[in-house]
UniProtKB/TrEMBL annotation:
<dbReference type="InterPro" id="IPR011014">
    <property type="entry name" value="MscS_channel_TM-2"/>
</dbReference>
<dbReference type="Pfam" id="PF21088">
    <property type="entry name" value="MS_channel_1st"/>
</dbReference>
<feature type="transmembrane region" description="Helical">
    <location>
        <begin position="61"/>
        <end position="79"/>
    </location>
</feature>
<feature type="domain" description="Mechanosensitive ion channel transmembrane helices 2/3">
    <location>
        <begin position="67"/>
        <end position="105"/>
    </location>
</feature>
<keyword id="KW-0812">Transmembrane</keyword>
<keyword id="KW-0472">Membrane</keyword>
<protein>
    <recommendedName>
        <fullName>Mechanosensitive ion channel transmembrane helices 2/3 domain-containing protein</fullName>
    </recommendedName>
</protein>
<keyword id="KW-1133">Transmembrane helix</keyword>
<feature type="transmembrane region" description="Helical">
    <location>
        <begin position="85"/>
        <end position="104"/>
    </location>
</feature>
<feature type="transmembrane region" description="Helical">
    <location>
        <begin position="22"/>
        <end position="41"/>
    </location>
</feature>
<dbReference type="InterPro" id="IPR049142">
    <property type="entry name" value="MS_channel_1st"/>
</dbReference>
Length: 118
């Protein structure tokens, strides 16, 4: 167990007071997972489009919404990983998110109609 801790605490490089260690490489894992999820979503939507169950415009809109959601979650994980408290950011942006939600209400209504059709 001690050797694993030594490996995880190995310093890759240091800039000023900030040190990047192997344990911080979970950033790469988070970004890779987000890219993999986006690739899977894109392939799944392409398959639905080929089966004529989903038109190109709806497929593109659905992919864009999923892309934004996945990247927001990935960025939240990244910020938590480097030590930024995401809960404070989310609480501060509550009013902004309510405004965006009201503005996108019709778009999400269309989105749910597409999901129900499947």
């Amino acid at each position: 167990m001690e050797t694993i801790n030594k490996i995880l605490e190995f310093e890759i490089f240091t800039i000023g007071d900030y040190t990047v260690k192997i344990s911080n490489s979970s950033i790469f894992l988070i970004l890779s997972t987000a890219r993999l999820l986006l690739w899977l979503v894109k392939k799944g939507l392409a398959r639905k489009s080929k089966l004529n169950k989903l038109d190109h415009g709806s497929s593109y809109a659905l992919y864009q919404m999923m892309k934004y959601i996945i990247w927001i979650i990935a960025i939240a994980f990244l910020l938590e990983n480097i030590g930024v408290k995401v809960t404070i950011l989310l609480a501060g942006s509550g009013a902004l998110l309510v405004g965006i939600g009201l503005g996108l209400q019709q778009t999400f209504n269309e989105f749910w109609k597409l999901i129900i059709r499947f």
